[in-house]
Amino acid sequence: MSDIVLATLNAKFIHASLGLRYLYANLGELRARADIAEFTLDQRATDIAEKLLARKPRILGLGVYIWNVDETTRLVARPAQKLIEAPPPPLDDLELPYAYYTDADIAHRLIYVEASRGCPFKCEFCLSALDKTALPFDLDRFLTAMDELHKRGARHFKFVDRTFNLNVASSRRILQFFLDRLSDDLFLHFEVIPDRLPDGLKELLVQFPAGSLQLEVGVQTFNPEVQTLISRKQDNDRTADNLRWLREHSHAHIHADLIVGLPGEDMASFGAGFDRLYALRPHEIQVGMLKRLRGAPISRHIQSFDLRFTPQPPYTILSTDRILFGDMQRLNRFARYWDLIGNSGRFAATLPLLLGENPFARFLIFSDWLYAQTGQTHRLALPRLFELLQRALLEVFALDTDTVLDALACDCAVHGTKGCPGFLHERLRTVSGVVVSAIEPHDKAPQRQARHLRG
């Protein structure tokens, strides 16, 4: 039994808490009396309580985040005393936590790492707007820790740095470190500033093969007036040029973000931004609903733009003065269906037929129709999605039957016939011989990224 238990509720088992491991690494002489306990959101509060109480801790620390605060407060009572102030320690004083990823973590879970902490930008929807700047960890010490993880078998590294490409010299050293250890099973994830991609980074990015690198590119909005309102500095033309270059010259999987519900943004403005981003061909467009993070400066716009959020976590936007509740619900469903169809990588041949020359407008029409037909945004099995896509393309958009069936059959053939509905079986025999993969990913690439490569 341990006197101190550090626990949290992760969204999924595959997630390993970096925060708990930082705390554990920095307990000093108390580390020998401490232990880590991780659970998931789908576990019952009573079962978690039983497991924690069985350890008989004198001190129980819980990692609380926007995604688990409801479940955590069901687990524990209100504390008798609150921590009022905890200034962050200098990074050089912190013990790095990476030795406390277990062999099981390395084998089965995402390994979260950070080369820097904080962000110099002031985007008001983000808690990082409160940071004074981005602070780097000592790079030699960090890379030594990465080398130790790599020697232990770690191959999937997810960097949580807000601004990986802020310091180009450091970014180059990190990229070169992994290029020197390149293997078929290596996979890296970085979040990058969209308008900062100098030649020194480009020359290294092009060396990563397909299936080894994912870049999360936070575009958020292309509307200059909205960017000014939320204190976001972004060169939109340079952002577009960089996204275009990444798709044309690198094998990186591009995951680009847009936010619904920002102050000053209406349906037309968001739609124009979506169309502009889609034309740049990122592999995924993550359409995220604005969240009111406690303490984030976005709160200063609540009255002037009539921002309304759910009162419970994750405090999702419900309406603004520009997008009323009904339309916000439509956009919420749009985001979910886009993730199922546009982001999944399963419908590379069918998606262009669905979107035509007006991607946002046509997918919104499809989204409205799909919800009217099913009343669901979840639990839509793959065979049913194929059937619904066929119906929409024929009934709503009046496309040619052979064109639609050929596209759907191609998508089935590329990714395997499992999950393909019966109405496509005959058509599969006519297309399966001509479907050729553009890029064949290595067999260790994450499934979602691999589907985009095969499409």
Defining key terms:
3 domains, 455 residues, pyruvate-formate lyase- activating enzyme, single chain, three-stranded parallel beta sheet, 17 helices, alpha/beta
In short:
The chain is of the alpha/beta class and 455 residues long. It has helices at residues 18-25, 45-54, 69-75, 103-108, 139-151, 168-179, 199-205, 224-229, 236-249, 267-279, 325-341, 351-355, 359-374, 382-396, 401-415, 425-431, 447-454, and strands at 4-10, 34-40, 59-63, 111-113, 116-117, 135-136, 156-159, 187-192, 213-220, 253-260, 284-289, 308-309, 317-319.
Question: How does this model look, in words?
Answer:
This protein has helices at 18-25, 45-54, 69-75, 103-108, 139-151, 168-179, 199-205, 224-229, 236-249, 267-279, 325-341, 351-355, 359-374, 382-396, 401-415, 425-431, 447-454; strands at residues 4-10, 34-40, 59-63, 111-113, 116-117, 135-136, 156-159, 187-192, 213-220, 253-260, 284-289, 308-309, 317-319. With 455 residues, the chain is α/β, with parallel strands linked by helices. It folds into three domains: 4-75, no CATH class; 95-323, tm_1862 like domain (pyruvate-formate lyase- activating enzyme); 348-455, no CATH class. The strands form four sheets. It has a six-stranded parallel sheet with strand order 4-7-8-9-10-11. Strands 2-1-3 form a three-stranded parallel sheet, with helices on one face. A two-stranded antiparallel sheet has the order 5-6. Helix 2 (45-54) packs across helix 3 (69-75) and helix 11 (325-341) crosses helix 13. The longest helix has 17 residues, at 325-341. The protein is globular, with a radius of gyration of 23 Å. The termini are far apart. The mean pLDDT is 94.
